[in-house]
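Feature request, filed as a ticket because there's no other form

It would be nice if the structure record came with a short human-readable summary line next to the tokens. Right now we just get the raw output. Example of a typical job, pasted below so the devs can see what we mean:
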Amino acid sequence: MFKQLQEKKKTIAVVGLGYVGLPVALAFARKFRVIGFDINQGRIAMMQAGQDPSHELPPDAFEGADIRFTSDPEDLKQAHFFVVAVPTDVDAHKVPDLTPLKKASASVGRALKRGDYVIYESTVYPGCTEEDCLPILEEESGLKGVKDFKVGYSPERISPGDKTRGITDILKIVSGCDEESLENIASVYGQIIKPGVYKAPTIKVAEAAKVIENTQRDLNISLVNELSIIFDRMDIDTKEVLAAAGTKWNFLPYTPGLVGGHCIGVDPYYLMHKSKQLGYDPEVILSGRRVNDGMPAFIAKRLVQMMIQKGKNLSTSKVLVLGITFKENVADIRNSKVVDVVRELMDYSVHVHIHDPHASPNEVAHVYKMTLQDEISTGYDAVLVAVAHREFQNLDHAFFTKIMKENPILLDIKGIYDRKLMNGTLTYWRL
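Raw output as currently delivered:
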């Protein structure tokens, strides 16, 4: 397989061209012939014009790439090495939603031929590739996995907004259904990954490795979030405590904040789901999720308390929220916990304005039914800086007091400002 791909006698198809799939497809297209497939025709049209719909990659990332973008499932039949990189989310009840993954598997299954490979990059629980996806591939193709075609798993390791470490700069885990598939998959990915690949012994090990990466981060952040709640009651600055504790060499540098996005706030639920299926209710993981999911309500309540203490009438008050994306300097609004803060404030009858220079107003309106302000107004009772976008980093005391009424309140969720420079006429608070 590897040799035929290398000689461009066979083709790679990347299914799902979002934050993960498009960088993978373009990286492969530097070495192999690639078909980039996505069901969203609008996104396909943008990519055909050399534009990244996610605004992560520059136009020159498309230059010199041997790739053809399509939304026609029939085109998948021309491929022999399929990489599935569709999103995996949870539903309203925090249960894994495998709908996109199953639909992608069905589309790939209908295009499968003897000798083909299917590699999944979507984050899943251990066992999903072989127990949920493989039967769909077999049913749609009429072929038998391992015997007629190979499957593998290579978890994505892309960090949106990170301009220094792209997909080709991060060591990649690969796995296969047998020794032959592992070697071929490792060889293919080894062509584009500069640090090389790590060969996991089984597909389940690779799946588990991915899902615990973000579970570990989730738990560490939940600890400092809980500490910030405790220290707030003690009138102690959490950032100052962490700076002091960080002077020890083995203290982990985690900071409190809102935990959203498509990874940290989602992946632990996949592990919990599988664990419960096997009869074990995870306690530590669930506890961490509960703390992090509760942070929007804590922040909104804290702001409301401060506003009441300053004699402000909630029903006539106006609050500016700066940032709605899940992370700084990205356009991704998926699973944004800032939205939860806004909704909590609205439940208190507070009038909220939202400004974000990175988010798409149309996407925010479509997904969350909220309106972004093009320009920052004045007359605010409080400002909540929710995301540490570069555009907000250098805002100063004079800026905030200029756009706010008397008794102004500033909530700095990410702790990006110097407390000493913000004190005075401005009431300053941070996690």
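Something like this underneath would help us a lot:
The chain has a mean pLDDT of 93.
The longest helix spans residues 203-233.
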